[in-house]
Amino acid sequence: MSQKGYTLLRSTLKRDGFTVVPVAIAWKGSTIADNTGFFLKKYTEKLARLKISSNEVYLLGFSYGALVAFLAATKIRVAGLILCSLSPFFKEDLPKNLPKNSSVLQIKRYEAFSQLRGRKLAQRVKAKSVCMLYGEKESVSTINRSKKTFTSLLAKKKYLFSIQKTDHSIADKKYINAIQFATTFL
Hints:
alpha/beta; 15% strand
């Protein structure tokens, strides 16, 4: 991931009329539950400060950040959700066992991921519309996770986009253009 990609994405979305409110998450030494809890706390604080209703909010996340946005959208109601290259870290995606030399943090993360059941969570998403995107050249596990999650979503408006000739990079102009295009469906 590249800061350049996020900077370009922010300026593109602002130009299209969106108010962009980034939430920086400290990933180091934390679990998905920690990250989601932190995001929800900051989200609530920022919405209150900006006097924005959650009915006007679109959550966007890339990769592991898409997983955080996805989990947050099972707890809060939002207008829309844009999941870019959703990480394949659900119970169904995990290996049966961790290697014997796993660190305490790896074990904690594995245990947290093993609580996430993709289909059940997808059915609890509280977004009016959902756009999911993935690069055509990404890992098979990321593509499969995106497709499985998309199929399980109950949102009335949902869209799945495969971005041609694109890898796992938010800095890729093709990815930014696809996100911009996807926002027209929200």
